């Protein structure tokens, strides 16, 4: 089947405090490029890409030095205090430039540099005609424990119903815009786009992806990726 055309959005205004680095984690090096450049590459190489928006902090000193900052397919939107604010600003920019409500938008983490083209194509293919949209995810593998206030195990959770949410997350522009805006007005905190869609009453579809599509959050995540990329070469 022909894969649908899509816009891509990367919220990249965070500082990544848990990395304890001298710069936001999306600008840390991996394999000769920064994490955000790798995150962008999978989309920039896709024939169905209509364009991209990267949401950045106003005083970001690192972005202008990257080659991709001058790519005409990439536009810059103002980053917000939270991820949802950054994504909403990007969607507002797309709307202002004439993107349609029923256009597909894929939101991806700027510090998730190992997205496989096969996973991207699988997401696009599986959700092309879906009425809601969905996200890449993986089933939980480990035994899950619910903690009590005292730091002890309160219960063991049935992992057969638990999935770990990854990105990209793929939704229609208009529906995602409305969901995020409603969450903002209602002061509902959401940590990903699927959460906003769920709050609006929708049920996003889970598309199983590769487990190595990890988000760099701690130093050991970056070291794991460096070792993996080194072994590939």
Poorly predicted runs of 5 or more residues: none
The number of helical segments is 6
Structural class: alpha/beta
- Oligomeric organization of the protein chains: single chain
The count of domains is 1
- CA-based shape: globular
Give the mean pLDDT. 94
- The proportion of residues in beta strands is 15-25%
CATH topology: Spore Coat Polysaccharide Biosynthesis Protein SpsA, Chain A
Give the terminus-to-terminus CA distance. 33 Å
Order of helices and strands: EEEHEEHEHEEEEHHEH
The helicity comes to 25-40%
What is the alpha-carbon Rg in Å? 18 Å
CATH-defined architecture: Alpha-Beta Complex
CATH superfamily: Spore Coat Polysaccharide Biosynthesis Protein SpsA, Chain A
Walkthrough of the structure:
A hairpin with a 5-residue loop joins β8 and β9. The protein is 30% helix and 25% strand. The radius of gyration is 18 Å and the shape is globular. The chain has a single domain, classed as Spore Coat Polysaccharide Biosynthesis Protein SpsA, Chain A, CATH 3.90.550.10. The strands form three sheets. Strands 5-4-1-6-10-7-11 form a seven-stranded mixed beta sheet, with helices on both faces. It has a two-stranded antiparallel ribbon with strand order 2-3. The model has no long low-confidence stretch (mean pLDDT 94). It has helices spanning 35-44, 83-96, 117-127, 173-185, 193-199, 219-232; strands at 6-12, 29-30, 33-34, 49-56, 74-78, 104-107, 133-139, 144-147, 153-157, 163-172, 205-208. It is of the alpha/beta class. The protein is built from six helices and eleven strands.
């Amino acid at each position: 089947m022909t894969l649908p055309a899509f816009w891509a959005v990367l919220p990249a205004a965070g500082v990544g405090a848990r990395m304890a680095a001298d710069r936001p984690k999306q600008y840390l090096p991996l394999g000769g490029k920064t994490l955000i450049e790798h995150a962008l590459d999978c989309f920039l190489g896709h024939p169905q890409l209509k364009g991209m928006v990267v949401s950045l902090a106003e005083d970001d000193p690192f972005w202008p030095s990257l080659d991709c900052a001058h790519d005409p397919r990439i536009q810059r939107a103002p980053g917000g205090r939270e991820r949802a604010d950054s994504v909403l600003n990007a969607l507002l920019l797309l709307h202002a430039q004439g993107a349609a409500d029923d256009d597909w938008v894929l939101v991806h983490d700027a510090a998730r540099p190992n997205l496989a083209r096969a996973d991207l194509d699988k997401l696009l293919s599986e959700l092309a005609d879906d009425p809601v949209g969905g996200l890449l995810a993986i089933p939980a593998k480990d035994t899950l424990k619910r903690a009590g206030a005292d730091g002890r195990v309160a219960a063991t959770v049935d992992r057969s119903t638990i999935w770990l949410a990854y990105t990209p997350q793929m939704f229609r522009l208009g529906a995602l815009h409305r969901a995020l805006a409603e969450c903002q007005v209602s002061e509902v905190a959401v940590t990903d786009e699927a959460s906003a869609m769920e709050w609006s009453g929708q049920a996003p579809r889970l598309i199983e992806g590769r487990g190595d599509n990890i988000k760099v959050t701690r130093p050991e995540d970056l070291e794991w990726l460096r070792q993996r990329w080194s072994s590939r070469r």
